[in-house]
Amino acid sequence: GAVVSQHPSRVICKSGTSVKIECRSLDFQATTMFWYRQFPKKSLMLMATSNEGSKATYEQGVEKDKFLINHASLTLSTLTVTSAHPEDSSFYICSARGTSAAYEQYFGPGTRLTVT
Amino acid sequence: AQTVTQSQPEMSVQEAETVTLSCTYDTSESNYYLFWYKQPPSRQMILVIRQEAYKQQNATENRFSVNFQKAAKSFSLKISDSQLGDTAMYFCAFMKHTGTASKLTFGTGTRLQVTL
Q1: Cβ A93–B97 below 8 Å, yes or no?
Q2: Phi/psi of residue A92, each to 5°?
Q3: I need a surface site. Which of A87, B29, B40, B47 has the fewest CB within 10 A?
Q4: How does A24-40 read in b/e, with b if 16+ C-beta sit within 10 Å?
Q5: pLDDT digit string, tens, across residues B34-88
Q6: Alpha-carbon distance A34 to B26, whole Å?
Q7: Dihedral, CA of residue A19, residue A25, residue A26 and residue A29, to nearest 10
Q8: What is the DSSP string of chain A?
């Protein structure tokens, strides 16, 4: 099946700094990518949807200036957490959809962000 | 807006036994997909089973089957012959059938523990 990778798998950063998380589709072209946030023992919360070459569409309540999403190519999307604070500490998961059926969505392994 | 409800936060089942996880949803859409995803301790989201709303026949994947009751907006997952490797969080999810704009709405999850 299709593979989605995320890098890094874990990252620790200091409060006030920015951190970038990469999401790559390894063996297919991802026309749409999704970014989720998951708190401990909670469900996945969709943050934003990005289409290649377009601006991301953010869900209500998600600060677009804080969570910068770039989908510059058909295989790469990035999420940059700017001026990170401890409350941004979370598990971030991306998923990608190719050109096949809309229901075919493949998830990355996630990135654990800890802000100290 | 769609909502997905999983009323069982935690469940436990003995190895080789059968367990059923409940899920209800609310939507005004007539054409949609329903999913069960598994999230083991590794945090990697894994698709377990998918059901198209227009199909009356319940989906089956090996030991996993669903009971889809469209009128009741119910979508339960039955796991037969439970195995230790089935221990995970299970999320029920809904997606409208609207092409590339489709996004997943997740329930709150059920933590399943398979015991010896």
Answers
A1: no
A2: -110, 130
A3: A87
A4: bbeebebbbbbbbbbee
A5: 999 999 999 999 999 999 999 989 999 999 999 999 999 999 999 999 999 999 9
A6: 23
A7: -140
A8: ---EEEE-SEEEE-TT--EEEEEEESSS--SEEEEEEE-TT--EEEEEEEETTSPPEEPTT--TTTEEEEEEETTEEEEEE-S--GGG-EEEEEEEE-SS-TT-EEE---EEEEE-
Torsion, CA A7, CA A12, CA A14, CA A19, rounded to 10: 10
Are A43 and B91 within 8 A, CB to CB? Answer: yes
Strand partners, A68: A80
Contact at CB, B108 and A105, closer than 8 angstroms = no
The Cα B63–Cα B83 span in angstroms is 10
Closest CB to B102: pick one of A102, A107, A110. Answer: A102
User: Six-digit token pair at B57?
Assistant: 């026949």
Q: Which of A35, A38, A28, A42 is nearest to A78 (CA)?
A: A35
